[in-house]
Structures are given as structure tokens and as C-alpha cells.
């Protein structure tokens, strides 16, 4: 089978997901990362639709890309407009992009009710737009919008549309499941049929409204498609687009189809996290292949088996996609899980100590602690039980004051002041500090850091990135146990810590203190 072309549309289709908005700088950073991964095409946006995309195409010209070719997206000419005079076509030409991707209707109902033109005029719009850009020396991809709906409703007309694009010289005709409602077996049948009808390379553009976009993309390839469009992490409008990371891994590892070399395949996890950081979306821990939980083992039976034979509960070696296996520790854990975690930490303890630790973990989780998502706190729990462990600091006491400064009125909601005082024993000294914050936990964080930075200046790079509160025992009202989970980062790695108490401030301090102590422990180890 021929090399499968990878076409990424994260910078356009991906940004149509609710909550995602990218600056020009963001788009350039993602373009560079996808080029490093080895993608063949990166769709930069729709020139002429907004100033941001116009600036992107101006600036991307100065970037020396090694693999990826930047594509500009636009629509066929407007009905009743000469192609040379069409503003959208002009914008595509002015973008200077070597590849132009044209979207055109291939569903008769869309033509008559959305474009409000005739079926014959739509065919002319497709042919003239493709032919004009080809005449200017551009590579042209034609996205046949709503194709799978169109071929179901009016097969003859849908085929006329893609034939018009192919005859005009389209370098690839992409069949779009725009509504995401087509199941994979139908995609296979349709792609195979179209391949017999037109003489042009075929591609697939699948949306995920039935949760089958990846499967549909694979079936399209199996039926003869040589070009796959999608987004990183499956970002996109409504339920998203086909997740290109899963498509790549499945093509390469499961179907033996060339789309990316082995060395670059190992960058998939890194790219997933990089893009999620840039778009400011929390990574999906359960995402296949690249998610943090993709190769995580919680049950004691599973952990015991994986320790003896990794493939017993793993379908591939996680290192192939840049991921790693994880063994979780919780109240469901057995000795195997704990022994595994101890080995990861470089610790060896007696069987009796392992048994005791299992009981401690189960007892603490019965009180509301949860260690499977707070491995930094788990490590500290283990190390604090060792006879030679010396903590970098110890709490003497803390006090938090939250004061309402002004009486609220209709015009002014009033100001809240949060102030914390903290006493920490660091070595032989007791340091007493105070700080304000935009909330009690923020104030505690500031006060603790003010003391610690005097002794551990490298802690300055560590910051909190997430703070979650969960009520453990619902129905207990304000006396319920609450669990606090904190995630922090130093810019290159992350840690997760947990605290639990009926007092939310105490639970927060537990998680916060664990976070600070873990980073100091890591710094000492390096």
C-alpha cells in the first residue's frame, strides 16, 4: 500500500471546539511541533476569514519546515461570481500557500437549501475553483462536504461533485463525514465504491459524533484512501474530529501501514501533551495510546501479572508511542502493586514492611485519602516511614484569617482579605512568615514559600496548576470529609498530592505541604 498522507487540521477544525482559541504564536508553535513529528500537511487556517489567520500565513513563510507543507483552507467560489473575482479565492492565492484545500457541497439538499443555488451551478463552482488554482500552480485538495449524507440521499449527484473536482485536476478528493453520523462499515463501502468511479486519490475527513471517527478513518484506508485528515487529541466542533494520534498508532502498529517512521512514533505522547498545554485543555488521561491511564494497572491481579509478563494486560509496549506503564496503589491494591511502586522509587523493604504499608494505605483510603491520583503523596507516605528519612521542613503551626472588609451593597460586592501566618521548622530554625492571597489556600502557599525560598531557592520554579475539592461522604453536610487534590509543575514535570479532613483548610495544607516537600525531595535526588 502507498504511503498514507497525514493532514492535520488542529489549527482550523480543532479550534472550532468549545473552549479553544489560539493566538498566532500558538499556531506557529503547534505547526513547528507537527513538522518535527513528521506530518505531511498542516492546515493553517482560512485566510480572508479573520486577521489572525492572515497574519499566520504571513509569518509562517519565515519558518523553515522540514516535513510539513502548510495548507490554506477556503471554499469554492460563490454562486454567480467569477472565480477570478471571488474574495475567498483571492485570499487563498494571496496566502502564497503551496496547498489549497477547497471545501464544496456534495449533498443536493445543502446546495439548494444552504447555498440556495442550482445543482448545476454548484458543479461549476467546484470545477472552476479547482481548475483556477491548479492553473496557478497550486496543489489542490477538494473536501467534499457532507459527502456521506449526500451519497445516501442522491448517489448520482454526490458522485458528480467529486468527478467534477477530479476532472478539474484535484490532487486528492477527500470524502467528508461532516455530521459524523456514518458508521465505519458504511465508510468502507462508500470509499471503495467511489474509488471505482473516479480516477483521483481519495482521502477521509471524519467527525466523531458516533464515537467512531478513528475507526471510520481506518476503514477508509482499508478501502483505498491514501490521505487522512484529523486533529491532535481529536479536538473539533461538537464531539470532535478523528484523533490523528490514534489513527497513526493503529495504522503503524496494528495494520502495518507506513505513515510515520518508528523514531517519530515515539513522540506521540509528547505531542499530545504539548498541544493540550498550548490549547489550554486538560489532557484526557484515558486517551488511547498517549493518555496517562492508557497503560495504568490498578487491580492487584493485573499488577501481579504485568510484573511477570507485560503483554498480559498491555496490547503494545507503551515505549513505542512514548508512554510508560504505571502501577496504581489504592484500596484495591495487593502486595504486587506496592512492591512495584517501591521498586520505581528505588526502595527495597521487607515483606513485613510491605504488608504494613498495604494496611496503612487501605486504612487511609477508608478515611477519604486517594493515592491512585496522588503518587507524590504516596511516595512521601512510604519515605516518611523509613527510619533515616529527614523531612526538609516541619509545620509548627499556621493560622488563616478571612476578613470581609466592606459591607456589600448593590453597587459593590465588598472585598475579601485572606491572610495566612505560617511557622515552619527548617533544620534548627523556626521561620515565622505571613502573606496575603486571593483565597486562604493561596495565602498559605505564599506564606510557606516565603519561608522555604530562603533555604531552597529552586522552589521558585514550582507552581500550582490545579486544585480540586471533592466531598468524600455525601450527606454529612458541612461536617463531611473533603478530599483536596493538588497538581503542581516545575515546567518540565508534574506531581499530584492529596489531603483529607473535615476541615477544608487542613486538607488543603496537607496536599500543599506534600507538594512542596516532594519537589524538594526530587531536587535533592538530582
Count of folded domains: 3
Taking the sheet with the most strands, its summary is: 8 strands, parallel, barrel
Q: CATH homologous superfamily of the largest domain - what is it? A: Aldolase class I
Tell me what the CATH architecture of the largest domain is. Answer: Alpha-Beta Barrel
Give the terminus-to-terminus CA distance. 48 Å
Uncertain segments: none
Q: Looking across the biggest beta sheet, what order are the strands in?
A: 1-2-3-4-5-6-7-8
Overall pLDDT score? 89
From the spread of the alpha carbons, the general shape counts as: elongated
Alpha-beta content class: alpha/beta
CATH class of the largest domain: Alpha Beta
CATH topology of the largest domain: TIM Barrel
Radius of gyration: 28 Å
* Percent in helix: 25-40%
Q: Roughly what fraction of the amino acids lie in strands?
A: 15-25%
Description:
With 526 residues, the protein is an alpha/beta fold. It has 3 domains: 5-278, Alpha-Beta Barrel (TIM Barrel), CATH 3.20.20; 296-366, no CATH class; 393-455, Double Stranded RNA Binding Domain (2-Layer Sandwich), CATH 3.30.160. Helix content is 39%, strand content 20%. The protein has an 8-stranded parallel barrel, surrounded by 9 helices. The chain starts with a strand and ends with a helix. 42% of the residues are buried.
Blueprint of the fold:
Elements: E1 5-8, H1 24-37, E2 41-45, H2 51-60, E3 69-75, H3 87-94, E4 99-105, H4 108-115, H5 119-135, E5 139-145, H6 147-153, H7 155-167, E6 172-177, H8 184-197, E7 202-206, H9 213-222, E8 227-230, H10 244-254, H11 262-265, H12 268-278, E9 296-297, H13 300-308, E10 326-327, H14 335-344, H15 351-366, H16 375-384, E11 394-404, E12 416-426, E13 429-437, H17 440-452, E14 463-471, E15 482-489, E16 494-501, H18 504-525
Parallel strand pairs: 1-2, 1-8, 2-3, 3-4, 4-5, 5-6, 6-7, 7-8, 9-10
Antiparallel strand pairs: 11-12, 12-13, 14-15, 15-16
Amino acid at each position: 500500500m502507498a504511503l498514507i498522507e497525514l493532514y492535520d487540521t488542529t489549527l482550523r477544525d480543532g479550534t472550532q471546539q468549545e473552549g479553544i482559541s489560539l493566538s498566532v504564536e500558538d499556531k506557529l508553535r503547534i505547526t513547528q511541533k507537527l513538522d518535527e513529528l513528521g506530518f505531511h500537511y498542516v492546515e493553517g487556517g482560512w485566510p480572508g476569514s479573520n486577521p489572525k489567520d492572515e497574519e499566520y500565513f504571513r509569518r509562517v513563510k519565515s519558518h523553515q519546515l522540514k516535513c510539513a507543507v502548510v495548507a490554506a483552507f477556503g471554499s469554492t467560489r460563490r454562486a454567480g461570481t467569477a472565480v477570478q473575482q471571488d474574495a475567498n479565492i483571492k485570499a487563498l492565492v494571496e496566502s502564497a500557500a503551496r496547498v489549497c484545500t477547497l471545501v464544496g457541497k456534495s449533498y443536493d439538499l445543502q446546495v439548494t437549501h444552504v447555498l440556495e443555488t442550482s445543482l448545476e451551478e454548484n458543479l461549476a463552482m467546484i470545477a472552476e475553483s479547482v481548475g483556477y488554482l491548479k492553473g496557478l500552480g497550486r496543489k489542490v485538495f477538494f473536501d467534499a462536504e457532507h459527502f456521506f449524507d449526500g451519497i445516501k440521499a442522491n448517489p448520482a449527484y454526490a458522485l458528480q461533485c467529486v468527478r467534477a473536482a477530479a476532472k478539474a485536476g484535484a490532487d486528492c478528493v477527500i470524502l467528508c463525514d461532516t455530521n459524523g453520523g456514518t458508521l465505519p462499515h458504511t465508510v468502507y463501502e462508500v470509499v471503495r465504491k467511489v474509488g471505482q468511479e473516479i480516477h483521483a486519490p481519495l482521502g477521509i475527513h471524519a467527525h466523531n459524533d458516533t464515537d467512531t471517527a478513528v475507526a471510520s478513518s481506518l476503514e477508509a484506508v482499508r478501502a483505498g484512501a491514501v490521505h487522512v485528515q484529523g486533529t491532535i487529541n481529536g479536538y473539533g466542533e461538537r464531539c470532535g474530529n478523528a484523533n490523528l494520534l490514534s489513527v497513526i498508532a493503529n495504522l503503524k502498529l496494528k495494520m502495518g501501514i507506513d505513515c510515520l517512521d518508528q523514531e517519530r512514533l515515539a513522540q506521540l505522547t509528547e505531542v499530545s501533551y504539548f498541544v493540550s498545554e498550548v490549547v489550554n485543555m486538560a489532557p484526557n488521561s484515558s486517551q488511547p495510546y498517549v493518555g496517562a491511564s492508557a497503560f495504568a494497572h490498578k487491580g492487584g491481579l493485573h499488577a501481579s501479572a504485568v510484573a511477570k509478563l507485560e503483554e498480559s494486560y498491555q496490547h503494545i509496549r507503551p515505549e513505542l508511542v512514548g508512554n510508560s506503564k504505571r502501577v496504581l496503589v489504592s484500596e484495591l491494591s495487593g502486595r504486587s502493586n506496592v512492591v512495584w511502586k517501591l521498586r520505581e522509587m528505588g526502595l527495597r523493604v521487607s515483606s513485613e514492611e510491605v504488608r504494613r504499608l498495604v494496611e496503612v494505605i487501605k486504612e487511609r483510603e477508608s478515611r477519604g485519602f486517594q493515592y491512585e491520583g496522588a503518587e507524590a503523596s504516596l511516595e512521601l507516605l512510604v519515605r516518611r516511614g523509613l527510619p533515616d528519612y529527614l523531612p526538609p521542613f516541619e509545620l509548627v503551626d499556621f493560622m488563616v484569617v478571612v476578613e470581609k472588609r466592606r459591607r456589600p451593597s448593590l453597587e459593590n460586592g465588598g472585598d475579601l482579605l485572606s491572610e495566612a501566618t505560617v511557622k515552619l521548622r527548617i533544620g534548627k530554625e523556626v521561620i515565622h512568615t505571613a502573606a496575603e492571597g486571593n483565597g486562604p489556600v493561596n495565602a498559605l502557599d505564599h506564606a510557606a514559600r516565603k519561608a522555604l525560598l530562603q533555604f531552597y531557592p529552586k522552589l521558585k520554579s514550582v507552581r500550582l496548576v490545579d486544585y480540586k475539592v471533592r466531598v468524600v461522604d455525601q450527606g454529612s453536610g458541612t461536617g463531611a470529609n473533603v478530599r483536596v487534590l493538588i497538581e503542581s509543575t516545575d515546567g518540565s514535570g508534574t506531581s499530584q498530592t492529596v489531603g483529607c479532613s473535615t476541615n477544608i483548610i487542613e486538607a488543603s495544607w496537607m496536599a500543599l505541604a506534600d507538594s512542596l516537600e516532594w519537589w524538594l525531595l526530587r531536587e535533592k535526588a538530582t
